[in-house]
Amino acid sequence: MLEQSLELAAFNKALHDQQSEIRRLALVARYANDSVIVADPTGHILWVNEAFTRITGYSREEAIGKRPGTLLDGADTSVATTTAIEDAVASGRPLRTELINYRKDGTKIWVETNQVPIYNEAGNVEMIIAIERDVTADKYHMEELAVAKRAAEDGERAKTQFLATMSHEIRTPMNGIIGMADLLNDESLNTEQKGYVETIRYSAEALMRIINDILDFSKLDAGKSVINPVDFDLLGCVESAVSILRPKAIEKGIFVELNCLTPVPPLLRGDDGRIRQIVINIVGNAIKFTKHGGVTIDLSCYDNSEGSLVTLDVSDTGIGIAEDRVEQIFDQFSQANGEITRQY
Q: Which among 34, 260, 271, 343 is most buried, taking Cβ atoms within 10 Å?
């Protein structure tokens, strides 16, 4: 008799604990921010929480006995998605997906639904619980970001196209100015007049270099920079670039020295125009920021399995770059120190 009483007490406690757990879960479901739908094995609604009414506009009484799709699907609801949901219900499989639903007032909303089948002890589906979240704001936000991204990309392409077009258009009259300056320089001019012509030519060439830099930058920005390999004389290429810069160094009273540290093949294959441009940019920059002493270029060339490895070391006695600013000079249109612009 005592043993039966103990078993009954244990059963009652287990039943009480189970009922308490069910009540707690019911409270959680009732006051959850997400919509909670409890449906029978065929997908017909048995119960919904208050969030369902707040999100969809349908009361519990209007929802019970109907299938969610009957209430909420509309013209823009994906047929493939609704078919997948029906298949999951019929086969007792869990499913997580997104679809377009319609509120009672006709407002279109995006819903993320996560439906899970609940099985009884016999292994059959007893009910289906679906937890649904209104993700309309997230969807619109993503669309706005996509539109903004496309607008930014279009703007960038327009800017790049403008830079390229402007650079090409300006180069033609600039070449005319340089050509006329050369013709004037061949005339019988006095020293002062020759100085004026040289100033015109130097300024035009400086502007042309800026224009070429803009054009190259716009090509790089658009991913259209092209390497044109040819057979060329490496040493002659570097020497020609240095010869262009040497008059400026002489004017400043500094030296420019080119040292060939290793034998250099008579011909290599590469883009000599790009190499010349690199030398002019780097050595020209070194001359610009050097007041005393000079600039040294060390050229070396070593054969390897892929061809030749060419190294150009440029060193100068100029102002240098602070160690904590080295990476900054690789940013677009940046210098190591903002005051440099005013000084140079």
A: 34
